[in-house]
Structures are given as C-alpha cells and as structure tokens.
Amino acid sequence: MVTDFIGMTAALQIFGVPPILTIIGVSILMISIFVHGRYWTWEKIVLLFCVLNLIYIPAILLIHPNYSDVIKDLISIIPTGGFTGDFFFFFMANIGPTIAPWMIFFQQSSVVDKGMTTKDIYFGKFDTAVGAFFTVVVAIACLILTGTLLFKPGGIDIDSAA
Q: Does pTM top 0.85 for this prediction?
C-alpha cells in the first residue's frame, strides 16, 4: 500500500495537490469504502480501473515501436548459459510481485462474498483465466511502451511523475 500511496501522491502533485491532502483524502475514501461499501460496489470500481488499464494496448499502436527490436529483446532474456543466478534473480523480480500469497486469500474471500457455489466453479476458473490473460497483455504493453518511449533516441527524459 505504501507504493500505491507514493504513486497517488506523485500523480496528484501534477495537479498541484499537496501530498498530505492526497494521503488524508485517499485514506478517508478507502476507510469509508471498507466500512460502508458492499462487495459488489468495490468489485465494480476495481473492474472500472481494470478496463482503464486496457488503454495501454491501443497506445502501443500510436507510438509505433520497432516490433523486430521488441521480439529480439524478448528472446535475448532467455539465458544461453542455462539457469544462472542472474536469470533466477530476474525471474524472481518479475514473478514475485505478480504472484503473491495474499491473492489466494483474496480469491477465496471473493468467492465467499459473491456467494458462489460448487456449480459456479467453472465460471470462477474462467474469470480467473481471463483476468490473468489480460494482466499479462497489459504488463507486456506497459513494458513495450516504457522501452519505446524512454530508451529510444530523442526519448522522454523523466525526472518525476510530472
């Protein structure tokens, strides 16, 4: 949550909102949703943010990355010397934050909150698979956008979120 607050304060500073106001405002909003919100309301808000993340996919088409470079760089991460310590570190740095133990508990609690029964297991698995697929697609889109915008000649020089 700390990194979420850092991101929110950095983003709202672009609009001149002081960090302390962001922290107080977001904390009040989160507490009120947690205390007074229903699961369905929270799920709809989260789904809205998930749909907004899909903007990264058409953004790739707008920036015209060099797709041969993307494929070449993707292939270059496969280690030629086998499973080395460096590759293990790279693998854990990417998989660790993506697959977190708390997600198992969250998924189980959402099954209970939705009131799912054994006949809904197929739909729950399908929902999870679709979500996992789009998570990977959006993550790849973010990587391509970042690589294209930041590391090309004349790319963007970023000193802050603004």
A: no
